[in-house]
Every structure is written in structure tokens, then in C-alpha cells.
Amino acid sequence: MTAARVRGTALDVSSLPTYGFSHRSIVWWATLGMIAVEATVFALAIATYFYLRSHATTWPLAGKPPDLLWGTINTLVMLGSLLPNHLAKKAAEKDNVSRARLWMAVCLAMGLLFLVIRIFEFRSLNTGWDTDAYGSIVWTLLGLHTVHLVTDFYDSAVLTLLLFIGPLEGRHMQDVSENAFYWYFVVASWLPIYLVIYWAARLH
Amino acid sequence: MKRQPSEQEIRDAAPRLRDGPGPGSPEARALDETWSDAPGLIGWFSAINHKTIALRFVVATMLFFGAGGILAALMRLQLARPGNKLMGPDMYNQVFTMHGTTMMFLFAVPVMQAVAVYLVPLMVGTRSIAFPRLNAYAFWVFVFGGLMLYAAFFVNAGADAGWFSYVPLAGPDFSPGKRVDFWAQMITYTELSAIVEAIVVITTALKLRAPGMTLNRMPLFVWAMLVTAFMILFAMPAVMLASTALIMDRLVGTHFYNPAEGGDALLWQHLFWFFGHPEVYLIFIPGLGFISAIIPTFARRPMFGYTAMVLSLIATAFLAFGLWVHHMFATNLPELGKSFFTAASMMIAIPTATQIFCWLATLWTGRLNFKTPLLFVLAFFFILVLGGLTGIILAAVPINLQVHDSYFVVAHLHYVLIGGAVFPLFGAFYYWFPKFTGRMMSERLGRWNFWLMFVGFNVAFFPMHLLGMQGMPRRVYTYQAESGWGQMNFVSTAGALVLAAGVLLFVINALRSWHAGAAAGNDPWGGGTLEWAASSPPAPCNFHALPVVHSRDPVWQPLPSGPPAQPPLPTHVMGLTADERQLLVTTVVDARPDVLHTFPRPSIWPFACAVATTVLFTASIFTAWAVVWGMVPVAIILTLWFWPHRHETARHLAMERKP
Ligand code: HEM
Ligand SMILES: [Cu+2]
């Protein structure tokens, strides 16, 4: 065990580790902060949805609710991506670079898949952002989440590239672990948004 | 392609010196070298030292304060007599909107964060803010956002729908043109900056505290900034969402606020005030932090009721989120709902009163040292009591309906904001100026400065209460002589000019003292928190040996009271690499040493990224597609920012110890 030692009137910290996972890492705290901000944005957007709905006599205002097919498929794909994501995180925490590479690559492939499916999701909303307030909020909810998918996909792609070609050090394993942490959030935040977009428009 | 560094390269990169020996030693010189920003023009734009960025940040926010103040003076001149022709209604609309917007978004919140960026690392006993590059990025984004708003104002596209831009006035039908778009986009810039700063401050306060500084010993100012930062995380998203929806309504035809298509104008008010009320506390709570730092020093005793103070701060933050509806009493919300919010508005008096009692108890039992910083704090009490009283009056629905949108509200909000934040802030400048510059500000000018501001402020704003009760509405560019408001408006304008003279005297005092003030020494006031243990101005690395903390006021009490312990307790840290930016990360609650984190060196990328962000945000006012193509340079720069250099990796590998 590495720890700080008292020498005379000094506290010698030279043998402490130079990185650590989860809450030991300051980057993890920054990620947590971002998650707090983004979760608040999602929560407020969902509140806006219900606020607008509470003022409407019919909901959707015009036309029909979104088709379930693509959204539901995408939910399953995203939930599926949690497995390689988990394995990448575990590999990183065991300092196993080759496995981290492998599972990050699998994650990316699934990421690409859900980005493509996302296009079909937009097409099955059955409304436009400029149709009415219902269309505006539904597009905004899906759009907000898509921004997260895109940025998370891009981050992960850069990190994976680094794992393959870059100059690596132990701290990059911490990055992989935090990247996975954020990915959990992106998938977890999708579940309420999925329920709102696809089901709140059906249940009365 | 970058390859992995070789064994040889790693060996060559191995650090040689470790910290521990105090000032004057070769290790200390190495530390100074390591933590300095580079010279030259590129070096200037690459600077990341928290003190460098913080001072620039403070100066930038004070320049915006000056700009907002000039606009205020223009308004007061226009209103000095009935039927004045200094400016017309359109110009007046822009001027009061720019004034309110500048003061709230470009001055009051960011100036507090800027001071925190300087002081929090010093107070918790570390060498840097967490994420120094992100911190620099946030600063540049802020500056560019403010400049954009003013650039628009100078080409007659100044925002003109009030600082809270209510729809439908701010919507596409009633505000064609680009004015409101600039306003909405300015929100995006400043909120981005504020959120990044909040994350930086939270991480610094929770993870970089010196060993032994448990949460229970964290200075109250740091507590105040920590609470503020948490509030920012949850309040700012609301206004970002609101302003994004507004700009989309205006630019791409969404219908959030358009009742004809199922939208709702009150939605704006809910989202805005969900942010806007906590916003007042984002300004006010740091002010409380200043006071809690200043009072113990000038009362020469530890703060009375530390725990009660911390709990009150936290309680205020929670309550602040339950109050937003009191800005909407004039709307047709359910009456029962309004009663609830009246009650909640009254309740927030409890934690505020608790803190006031703790301060008074500290003052009462201390030996007072009447210096300029203390004068500003005492003024705070006086002004805030009046502002709080008018606030309680406003929290009652029937009275609120009566004086809604009158000068009574203008008076109230300035009593709260100027009394609650600006006076403590000026006190804080007098208090920490010696730390920032190594020189004292003149006491004589300080007293003149104080009395001019105090008298000017009250003469300017007290008559506004009466004007409001006589029915003078806010946001009018003129009034008729028959109204009988001319005399009091004239008095108010005279007061505003006296206030302005006070601020000018402050500027003169600061500039003169910066060059010619008396040398301050480390601890000119006899303060108890760790910033006073550093030299003035602090070395680039703040502390040549990081302190180990054993009490709440480590300068007053470096070791626990009682007989000396055997073996002796540690007083400082050793063993951090002196020729790398290595820092000690400690545990959240107990501040036990945990991990060594190597911080990045200065870099131009934060500045470059801020420029790219500016292009993205500003262009998207003109074409929505900029959101797509504008992302490309941002993404490229972020990638370059993140991507490690082989030599850097070699240096890190040479120090690496796995967890
Ligand atoms: C320095 C001296 C100041 C003077 C003389 C001054 C003067 C004024 C005046 C005359 C108005 C009313 C405009 C109108 O309704 O027609 C006003 C509005 C306002 N002021 Fe100040 N002010 C000062 C400082 C501040 C500060 C420090 C803040 C905030 C921290 C502030 C925030 C505001 C806000 C938010 C409004 C409302 C703007 C709106 O109606 O949209 N002011 N000020
Ligand atoms: Cu309020």
C-alpha cells in the first residue's frame, strides 16, 4: 500500500500513485459536474414537455404520435452497448490495454449503429419542429439527446484512436474509465426521454 | 504518427527535484520556474496560472461594470428633468437593457467567480485551480461573449427587450431584427463560461485542499463559493434552455412561446425565473463569503458559529430554488400557489438572519479594527436591512400588485444587489488588494471612496422608493412635468453622480497604489486563512511547501492547542516533483493525501478554442447551419488540445506510479 509518511515535521507524499480511478480522479469530478448540468437540462426539457401538454386539449396537437419501431430498436441497441462499455471500463481499471482497445472498438461500432438508427427516429416522429409547439419540444428532446450521442461518439473515437496509435501512459486508462462513466449517463438519460417522446404521447 | 516514448527518453525525462525545502532553496526556485507562464505575446495568450487568469478576469468584469455604470449615468441624466431630450425611447430601451444585462451577466456573477479563481486555491492551500486550461478557456469565452454584445450595441443592434427579455415582446413578431438574437446568444456564452468555472471551483474545493483541511475546517469564503458553484450547475441550464428555445423560435420557426401554435408565453417566465431568482443568490452568497472572511480579521477573533454559518449557506441555496414564482405574482397563477411562494419567500429570512446574528456576535465580542474593508461591510448591514425590508413588502401579493413594474422595484433591486454584493465586493478589493499586488491601498482615499459611494448610493436610490409609490413606472424614457416627479428624479441623478465619483476614486486609488502603495508584507491585516501565509503577491506556485492544516484558522493556529504532540505533527508537505506541475489530490471529506496529479503546462489551445467557439456562436445568429460547420474547428482544436505529445508522455511515464 502506498501512503503518505511523516518525516520530522514534513508529510512525505512522494510514494502516492500518480493517478486513480473513480472519485479519486479530479477528472471524474468534472465529468460528474457535466452530468449534473446535462441531467438538469434534460429534466427541464421534460418539464417543458409536460407543461405544454397541460395547456393543450389534444396531445399531440395535430397528427399522430411517433412510430414506436425505430425508437424501441435504438433503446435496445443502446442498452446492449452497456456491455462492451462495462468491459472496456473493467479492462482499463485492470490496466489491460489490449482488451480496452477491443471493447472500445466494439462500443464505437454500436455507437455508429445507434447514430444511424437515430436518423430513422427523426423520420418517424410524425411532426416537424416548426409544425407546432408539440413538434418543437419533441424535436428538441430528441435533438438534445442526439447532441450527446454525437459528442460522446466523437470523444470515444478520439480516445480509441489514441489507444491504438498514441503515446500511452497509465493515466489514459483512467480516461477510458471516465469515458465509460459518461457513456452510462448518455444511455441512462435516454430511458426517460424515450418514455416521454414515444409513450407520453400515447397515454392519456 | 506518434510513437510510444523509448526507455531512454523516459529516463532522460525523469524529474530531479522534489519540493519540501522552503523559500530560497534550489527546489523553491525550480518551483517558481515550473509554475510560471511563458513570456512574450504567444505566452500571454497561453497563460493558465490561476492568478494571472483571475486578475485578467477581474479587470474584464470591472470594465464591464464601468460600461454598465456609464449606461446607468446616461439613464440618470436623461431622467434628471421632465421631457429631457438626451435620448429617445428606442435608445433608452437599448440602454436600460444593456445596463441590466451587463450588470447581471457580465459583472455581478462573473466577478465573484473571478475572485474565487484567485483565492480558492490559496485558501485551500494548493498551487493551482483544478483544470487551469479549462479555466483559461472559460475566461476567453466570457470576454468574447461580452465583446459581441457590445459590438452589436455599437452598430445599433443592442438588445432592447429588458434584461429578462419577456416574450412575446422578445419573440419574432414584436422584435424583428437581430437585437434579441445577440442577447440570447450572449446568454449562451456567459452561461457556458459560468458553468465551466463552477466545475473548476467545485473540484478545487473538494479535491485539492491541503492535508488536514477537513470540510469542517474549510474557510467560509470557500464554502460560499462552493455553494454558489453548485447553484450555478442547477440554475444556469434553465436560462440556457429558455434562451435557446427563444432563439429557435426566432430563427428556425419553432413555437415554444407562440400561443397560436400551442406554445405558451408564461413558459418563458417560468424557465427564466427558475434561473433568475437563484441568480440573485449567485450574486449575494459570494458577498456573504467576503463578509465572513473580512469580519473575523477585523474583529480579531475566529468566526462565531461556524457550523451554523455553513448550514445557513446551504439552506439558502435550497430555498432559493423554491422562490421563482414571486416574480410572477402579476400573472394569472392559482392563488394558493402564490400563497405558498409568499411563505417560502418569507422563510428565506431565517438563514439570512442566522448569519447576521453570527456576524454581529463576532463583531460584538471582537476587538474592532476600523479599516476601509470593515466600513464596506458595515454599510452592507445598513443597506441590506432596508433592501430586505422592501423585499418583505414585495413578497406580499397585494402590495406586489400595486408597485409591480414601478420604481419601487428598481429601488429594491439595487438595494439588494448593490448592498448585498457591490459593497462587500469593494470591501473585498480593499482587503485582498495587498495580496494581489503586494501593496496597500491608501486608507485616506479609501475612506473618501467609501463615504462618496455610501452617501451617493442612498441619495440615488432612496427617492426611487417614493417615486415608485407615487406611480412612476420603470423603463420609461421620460415623464411629464405635471407628474411632479421632477424634483426627486433630480436628487436621484445627483446621488448617482456622487456614487460615480466614489467609483472613480476607487479606480484612482487602485492604480496609484499598484505602483506606489506601501509594501504590504505577507499578512498586513493579521488574517487567519492560508492566503495570508503566502507572499504578496504570491509566488507562481503559491506555496513553496504545501501546508498541513490542524485548525480552522491555520495562520492563527498552525498546530492544535495543548502541549506539543510527540512525535511532532507535520506542518508541511514534501515530495512533490518540483520541476513538474505535480499536485496533491486529497479525499473529499477528510482531506487525506490520496493521489498525485500532474497538471498541464500553458497552452494556446484554450484561447484558440475560445475563438472557434466565438465563430460558432456568433455565426449561428445569422445561419442555423453554423451550428453544424462551426463544430468542425471546435472539434479539431479540442482534439489537438487533448492529444498528448510524446515528450509529455515520457515525462509522465518517468514519474508514474500505478494505483
Ligand atoms: C452604479 C450605479 C447604478 C445606477 C445609477 C443604476 C441605475 C439604474 C436605473 C436608473 C435603472 C432603471 C431603468 C429603468 O427602468 O428605466 C436600472 C435598472 C437596472 N439595474 Fe441598475 N444601476 C446601477 C448599478 C446596478 C448594479 C450594480 C446592478 C446589478 C448588479 C444593476 C442592475 C440593474 C437591473 C437588473 C436593472 C433592470 C433593467 C431592466 O429593467 O431590464 N444596476 N439601474
Ligand atoms: Cu426572486
Q: How would you sum up this structure, described in words?
A:
- The complex is a heterodimer of chains A (204) and B (659).
- Chain A is an all-alpha fold and 204 residues long.
- Chain A has helices spanning 26-54, 68-93, 97-123, 133-165, 171-200; strands at residues 5-7, 10-12.
- Chain A has one domain (24-49, 73-202): Up-down Bundle (Four Helix Bundle (Hemerythrin (Met), subunit A)), CATH 1.20.120.80.
- Chain A has 5 helices and 2 strands, in the order ββααααα.
- Chain A has a two-stranded antiparallel sheet.
- Chain A is elongated and about 75 Å long.
- Chain B has 659 residues and is mainly α.
- Chain B has a two-stranded antiparallel ribbon with strand order 2-3.
- Chain B has a domain at 7-43 and 527-655.
- The model of chain B has no long low-confidence stretch (mean pLDDT 93).
- In chain B, β2 and β3 form a beta hairpin.
- In chain B, α9 (265-299) runs parallel beside α12 (349-365) and α13 runs antiparallel to α15 (407-437).
- At the A-B interface, β2, α1 and α4 of A face α7, α8, α9, β1 and β3 of B.
- β2 (10-12) of chain A pairs parallel with β1 of chain B.
- Bound molecules: protoporphyrin IX containing FE and copper (II) ion.
Task: Considering the chains and any ligands shown, give keywords for the structure.
heterodimer; A: 204 residues; mainly alpha; Four Helix Bundle (Hemerythrin (Met), subunit A); two-stranded antiparallel ribbon; 71% helix; elongated; B: 659 residues; two-stranded antiparallel sheet; 21 helices; 3 strands; 63% helix; binds protoporphyrin IX containing FE; binds copper (II) ion
Tell me, rounded to a whole number, the average pLDDT of chain B.
93
Major sheet attributes of chain B: 2 strands, antiparallel
SSE order of chain B in H/E notation?
Answer: HHHHHHHHHHHHHHHHHEEEHHHH
Class from secondary-structure proportions of chain B = mainly alpha
How many extended strands of chain A?
A: 2
> In the CATH hierarchy, what is the architecture of chain A at level 2?
Up-down Bundle
- Please outline the major beta sheet of chain A: 2 strands, antiparallel
Q: What are the secondary-structure elements of chain A, in order, as H or E?
A: EEHHHHH
What's the average pLDDT of chain A? 94
What fraction of residues of chain B sit in β-strands?
A: under 5%
- What is the CATH topology classification name of chain A? Four Helix Bundle (Hemerythrin (Met), subunit A)
Ligand inventory reads: protoporphyrin IX containing FE, copper (II) ion
How many helices of chain A does DSSP assign?
5
Percentage of residues assigned to helices of chain A: over 70%
Helix content of chain B: 55-70%
| Gap between N and C termini of chain A | 59 Å
